[in-house]
Amino acid sequence: MKKKKLARLICISSLFQLFVAHSCLKKRGDLKKYFNIVVLTSSNIHINNYEKIHKFSNSLGYKNVINLSNQIKKLTPDYSLFLRRDLKNKFKNYEIKEILIRYKFNLFEHTIFSSFNEAKISIFEDGMGDYMKHSLLDDARKRNKLKDFLNYLYYRCLNYDHLFYFNINYSYPLRINNKFELINDCNGDLKSHHISDKSFINIKNEFLKVIKKFKTIKFRKKTILFLMHDIDEYFDPARTNKIELKKNIQYYIKARQLISKKFPNYDIVLKTHPNIRKSTLKILKKYNLNILSKNFITEMLINNKKVFCVVGFASSSLIYAKKIFKKKTISFNTNKLNFHAVDNQSRSIFDVLKRFKIDILEL
Fold first, then answer.
1. What does pTM read for this prediction?
2. Are residues 98 and 25 in contact, defined by beta-carbon separation less than 8 angstroms?
3. Residue 330: which of 276, 283, 266 has the closest Cα?
4. How far, CA to CA in Å, does 49 sit from each of 64, 95, 144?
5. Confidence class for position 274, pLDDT limits 50, 70, 90
6. Consecutive H or E run containing 48
7. Percentage, residues of the chain above pLDDT 70
């Protein structure tokens, strides 16, 4: 019988996560310990986005990339039973020794953990959501504790471990191998859920070394980088609704005008989200907004000495610009905005912005 190859699954849902995960392995110094497989775990991986992630994965040395986007789109408790069998079959030639994945354990995370029960789990941060307080979330973003408990009892009776673990928000403390962070802050409910006797390992220096290896663009004068949210996010109405898209663009035009009055002698560059589709980019360019859509993660640009200030509505890169790069950062009172970027999260986002001492403007 052929011996199975020892493998590590590097589960990411964005370009940013790819660089964070790579920094984790560089910090630990065991990049070549296992056969590495990058697994794309977002429902939001359209063709343009996939090409970018695949390109950077190859440049970092990861030649094996598997896209589970279509399966994630279908993911429900019932479908997770099929997905678990499919994952075992997909990786049947490997002995999965480790799963490197984000802090946030949703249904997919519990499904893949139960598919490979012997694998150790290492976790890394994924931005603003890790620092939010659940008590400030609204409507659908809040978990229904009674419903979760009833579901837990139901799936416990059926002996579906990943489903009852999902409904009690289980954190797998005995399987957690390493916990990595970019920012030393545990005030958010998601990150604090993983506090234990095992300390978080800071990867800030490794992350900076990794992104500095990539050449970006040169800004000719002092620049304000205005970060756009993910308009092409799978559930964003602006993705398919022209009226919603136009409303989103008007928010950016109004905000840009406000920043321009405040800093009249600076270039303002609107950096699109890495996930943007070519069709959406084509529409944005009609508005003469000085759009930048190169295949870089935002942090590569923030690291540029010409970038004086970073602006955005609800971007995780705001907190990294503030805490890692020590840049001036500006956001807006998201409680008064009505668009998907802050939907059901406005109070929790506002709380994060205030805690990280990001300047808030009224729009």
1. 0.89
2. no
3. 266
4. 16, 29, 33
5. confident
6. helix 47-59
7. 93
